Amino acid sequence: MRNPTDMDKVQTDGHALVERAKTGDQDAFAALVRIHQHEVYTLALRLVGDRELAADVAQDAFVRAWRALPRFRGDAKFGTWLYRITVNTAWSTRRRWHRQRTEPLDVEGGAIVDTAVGPERAGIASVVGLDLSTALGRLSTPLRTVVVLKDVYDWSHAEIAEHLGVSVTAAKVRLHRGHKALRTMLDKEVNH
Fold first, then answer.
1. Domains of the chain, CATH where assigned
2. Which are the contacts of 117, defined by CB distance < 8 A and separation ≥ 6?
3. Is the pTM of this model over 0.90?
4. Contacts of 88 (CB under 8 A, 6+ apart)
5. What tens digit of pLDDT does each residue of 88-143 get?
6. Rounded CA gap, 69 and 36, in Å?
7. For residue 121, with 0-12 CB atoms within 10 Å meaning exposed, 13-18 middle and 19 or more buried, which class applies?
8. Is pLDDT above 90 for 40?
9. Is the Cβ–Cβ distance between 105 and 137 less than 8 Å?
10. Are 160 and 149 within 8 A, CB to CB?
């Protein structure tokens, strides 16, 4: 684990990269992409449930970020701003993808297991693995987004609401509906 001095340096360097990128410095933006590419791709994968589509979402999110960067005011951290762009890109890509495709979303690559959530949750996730991934893939995009942001990334209801442009109550309702739908789907799998 880094000490606070190292974290301050990374944040300062990140801020300097953002400022340079805002002026059109492509090398600075490339460095920001390298710093955030794993998290952006992982978030996209959890939102769209398909590796190829997630790669497209991540690439589109970075393109959109590059184009919007001159308007980035710095009210939020760059990473937070980039994750919101990723969520919005995932939503629009999923809508477009569903219009072009008639069969249900198929989650590829097996279970989504994130050991960063703790050993107990990772163990449970590995047991239900593919069933949970499949169930997440069947949720509507708004429900899936809230479930992933809350349960995987541990965002607060207020953070989710702010980043999705909805009220805190709407975020809580979506989370409740998402959990209820997941429980129903998983119960059906266990009882069959």
1. 1-106 (1.10.1740.10), 107-192 (1.10.10.10)
2. 125, 151, 152, 154
3. no
4. none
5. 898 887 766 655 544 443 444 444 444 444 555 444 445 445 567 778 888 888 88
6. 15
7. middle
8. yes
9. yes
10. yes
